[in-house]
Design brief:
Ubiquitin-like (UB roll); 8 strands; single chain; 32% strand; four-stranded mixed sheet; mainly beta
Length: 142
């Protein structure tokens, strides 16, 4: 993955961070978008430190709300997101990462992206297949 940079030691200060409208928890939603196809791969959350780390190493780092810690995408699965561009929206309260997804799998379910269910009538239908069984992805890494 990154060149040995300890993401936990990356500072959470930079002048450009002040331009972002962080929510009351100090987070902003971050959308990962495939830099070739434009497909939306996933949505996660970033805090200041995650965004600075992402900019510093060129790989997506998010804030895991469930684990309450920085999450370097691919640290368990190997499915790193190489960041080619970072953008914010007009209100500065959402982040878009244009990424190249290693292994073609962004979702922990083993799919290309997390948005694999579509509303059809009154039910959600699965419209995208599993690329690789998650048990195979995480077998030696959990």
């Amino acid at each position: 993955m990154s060149d040995g940079i300890d993401i936990e030691s990356v500072p959470s200060t930079a002048p450009w961070l002040e331009d972002i409208a962080w929510n009351e928890a100090g987070l902003a939603p971050a959308i990962a978008q495939d830099d070739q196809s434009g497909d939306i791969l996933m949505l996660a959350w970033m805090n200041r430190q995650a965004l600075v780390a992402t900019a510093a190493i060129g790989e997506a780092v998010y804030w895991s709300r469930s684990r309450k810690k920085l999450w370097h995408k691919g640290e368990s699965s190997g499915h790193v997101q190489y960041v080619s561009e970072i953008r914010i929206d007009c209100d500065a309260d959402a982040i878009v990462l244009r990424v190249r997804q290693k292994g073609g799998i962004a979702c922990h379910t083993g799919r290309r992206h997390c948005f694999y269910r579509r509303l059809r009538g009154q039910d959600w239908e699965i419209v995208d297949p599993v690329v690789k069984d998650p048990r195979e992805i995480y077998q030696d890494k959990t």
